[in-house]
Amino acid sequence: MKNIRISLRLLKYMALIFIVAQLSGCATSEKSPISASSSSIDSANSKAVNDALQLQGQPYVSGGESPIEGFDCSGLVFYVYNKQGVRLPRDTWSLANQLPSVQINQRQPGDLVFFNTTARPFSHVGIYVGDDRFVHAPSSRTGRVMMSDLKQPYWRERFVAVRRPQSQRPLSVNNAGNNACLLN
Predict the structure, then answer these.
(1) In this predicted model, what pLDDT tens digit does every residue of 102-138 receive, in sequence order?
(2) If 124 and its partner were Cys, which of 24, 50, 92, 115 is the partner (CB 3.0–4.6 Å)?
(3) Active-site positions?
(4) CA 175 to CA 88: how far, in whole Å?
């Protein structure tokens, strides 16, 4: 009887080892595609993330704010949120100064991440999509809307703030004349 229990226990361990070995073959170092579906995220922010992800590859154009003409950084944010019925300012400075601040460890997909890329705070903005990644229209040098990683040294060193767009709060849409979204 004791031998049967030992054999059954051994059989269970062997089965467990087999399953773990099979599953480990499915592991990958690639990050899975991002989808914003968390119920804690504002619906407009969730849709904005999905829209921003779809715009990857669109051309960078200074002053651009549509897929037809291309995008600069604040034009991308303006377009994506306007599509959700959330009216935001058109320039980075106004976005940073009018939207509520969020602690970096409290950021959620759909939040805006700001950078100092031209020796001016809030000179670049992107849409946080989760997993330390954000979609943005960086510059004419890169030439397109793309996803980048906040862990990359360039972005980590220039990161300044997180702001959260909210559909309930009316904002001024005045252009402060500070649309710069260029990298050094």
Answers:
(1) 999 999 999 999 999 998 889 999 999 999 999 999 9
(2) 115
(3) 73, 124, 136
(4) 11
CA atoms within 13 A on the CB side of 134: 26
SS3 129: strand
- Confidence (pTM): 0.72
**Helices marked H in 39-123:** 43-54, 73-83, 92-98
What letter represents residue 90's amino acid?
R
Tell me how far apart the alpha carbons of residues 176 and 122 are, in angstroms, rounded to a whole number.
Answer: 13
Count of C-beta atoms within a 10 Å radius of residue 26: 6
Cα-flanking dihedrals φ and ψ of residue 109, to 5°?
-55, 135
What is the Cα 20 distance to its own chain's centre?
Answer: 33
Token pair recorded at residue 115: 């950078």
Q: What would the DSSP string read from start to end of 85-100? A: T----SSHHHHHHHSP
Question: 176 burial class (0-12, 13-18, 19+ CB within 10 angstroms)?
Answer: middle
> Amino acid identity of 69?
E
In angstroms, rounded to a whole number, what is the distance separating the alpha carbons of residues 148 and 141?
15
Domains, the chain, in order of start with CATH, read 43-163 (3.90.1720.10)
β 133-136/124-130 pair status = antiparallel
- Quick one: which of 172, 139, 5 has its CA closest to 59? 139
